[in-house]
Specification:
This protein has 497 residues and is of the alpha+beta class. It has 14 helices and 21 strands.
């Protein structure tokens, strides 16, 4: 079965979020081992489902009832069950086969059709062995569209069953994905003053484009109000009884106090000052490790930090509006073959010192394959670092780009469970200074060249930090078993390079 692999899901998710939102999510995934762990779980489950091929088992009654409960919990505004159309050509029409899109084959439509199957199933239980003169709609659906039912199961179960263990950020992104076509209100439902602010914000980044504001997705109490602008009229999907956007050319986020937080537009609509654009292009051209086109996909402005955001397929660069200087740059998705050999060698050596000669995850050898380059300049904490990692981002080793120093290493497969009550579990220290040094002293000395004997130990929940005046600090993080899954150095001068 190749209806919806993990990579395709992520690609689709990326296309449904604005570039600004996607980049923020991506940066968080790179920084948050907890989220990477959840993505790995999702990938494993998805690949296990993918391995079923066409041999999709019949769905049992109890299983269907359980899934129906999960579907109901999603509040997808599913309409009355529809009768499957017997004449549909599966090869050409069912579920777009290799991708989901915003047509009638969207997630909501698939789920609706699966619910039709499930509803019929609950009314008339069906076993694999039973034969019928007139097959039920549910049997026809399952035999005619096995992949469609499987996708419904995958989306519903994988994105909701493990949601209790997902981090809040990942859950919020999944929520956006599941509600991708929902427009909760229009701008006519808002205070006109809010709408004017949104229009003014868009003019800041798209002065020469007349955009009509339309859709609003409200996230009151968490992220404020997001106003979606479209240059084309939205259409009403009669089957789903909800508004589906045909384009999202601009996005404005306004917080609960009525203040604009950020605005972004697709590059084709943007009015970009040539000075800032040239600064961005020059910066990229100076990066020996950058091999991309430098083409801007989205242009935005952050009102809190007063920074312009240039977002491409393979970069994200922030430029301060007042100084005209690059303040933050991020170049992800690189292969280690494109990275300075000394950086890769330092990462491989650190991995051995931390995890042994032949580290494994899920009984598979750990191989460092990917890298990303991050840079920050004042007013942020100054840094110029490489993160080198395995394909799924379990192991992440941070190396200074200029110094070649190891700054941190972590094993995301050994994180504390997200179900753990951190304050209750880690309120009392597991380690004393002496026992902590016994556990990690030699590793710290090998990784960072620091002897912990003359340091003092500070404890906060699952973090153990060794401090010494005028010297870099060393922080170790543990899980419920007392295993140190992460070690990092905190520079005394605040500079990571």
């Amino acid at each position: 079965m190749k209806c919806l692999t993990f990579d395709q899901f992520m690609a689709y998710l990326d296309s449904e979020l604005s570039s600004t939102e996607s980049s923020a999510f991506e940066e968080h995934i790179h920084a948050c081992a907890d989220c990477r762990k959840q993505l790995a779980v999702l990938k494993q489950e998805w690949e296990a489902l993918d391995a079923l091929g066409e041999d999709v088992p019949q769905v049992s009654d109890s299983f269907t009832a359980n899934v129906m409960g999960k579907i109901a919990a999603l509040k997808l505004d599913i309409v009355e069950p529809i009768e499957p159309i017997e004449s549909i050509d599966v090869a050409e029409q069912a579920c777009s086969m290799n991708k989901l899109d915003d047509s009638d084959n969207s997630l909501g439509q698939i789920t609706t059709e699966f619910s039709s199957s499930a509803a019929s199933e609950q009314a008339l239980p069906v076993s694999v062995e039973r034969t019928e003169a007139a097959p039920s709609a549910s049997r026809r659906l399952r035999s005619k569209w096995p992949r469609r039912a499987t996708i419904a199961l995958a989306c519903v179960i994988l994105l909701t069953a493990i949601s209790a263990t997902m981090s809040d950020v990942f859950k919020s992104v999944v929520e956006v994905y599941l509600n991708k076509t929902n427009v909760e209100m229009t701008v006519e439902d808002l205070d006109p003053a809010i709408v004017r602010k949104a229009e003014e914000a868009i003019k800041m980044v798209a002065a020469n484009k007349d955009m009509k504001l339309y859709g609003v997705a409200e996230r009151t109490g968490r992220t404020g109000t997001r106003i979606v602008s479209t240059t084309r009229a939205p259409n009403l999907n009669e089957d789903l009884k909800q508004l589906a956007m045909t384009a999202r050319d601009a996005t404005v986020r306004i917080n609960n106090e009525g203040m604009v937080q950020w605005v972004s537009v697709l590059a084709e609509h943007a009015s970009i000052d040539e000075t800032y654009l040239k600064t961005m292009q020059t910066f990229l051209s100076q990066q020996a490790d950058y091999y991309g086109s430098g083409k801007v996909k989205e242009f935005g402005y952050d009102f809190d930090t007063e920074e312009y955001h240039f977002i491409g397929q393979d970069f994200k660069i922030k430029i301060n509006k007042n100084t005209g200087a690059v303040t933050d740059a991020f170049i992800p998705h690189m292969k280690v073959s494109e990275v300075d050999e000394r950086i890769v060698a330092a990462a491989k050596q650190a991995l051995k010192q931390f995890a042994g000669e032949k580290p494994k995850i899920l009984n598979m050898p750990v191989v460092l394959t990917n890298a990303r380059h991050s840079m920050q300049m004042p007013p942020y904490v100054e840094k110029d670092i490489w993160d080198v990692m395995d394909e799924m981002g379990y192991y992440v080793i941070t190396i200074g780009a200029k110094t070649g120093k190891v700054w941190s290493i972590s094993d995301g497969s050994r994180l504390p469970s997200s179900k753990t009550d951190m304050e209750k579990q880690f309120d009392k220290p597991i380690y004393t200074k002496e026992t902590a040094i016994t556990a990690i002293g030699e590793k710290v000395k090998g990784l960072f060249g620091i002897d912990l004997e003359e340091y003092e130990l500070q404890h906060k929940l699952n973090e153990y930090t060794f401090v010494k005046p005028g010297k870099p600090s060393v922080k170790g993080s543990v899980n419920e078993k007392g295993e140190f899954w992460g070690l990092e150095v905190i520079p005394e001068d605040g500079v990571w390079n």
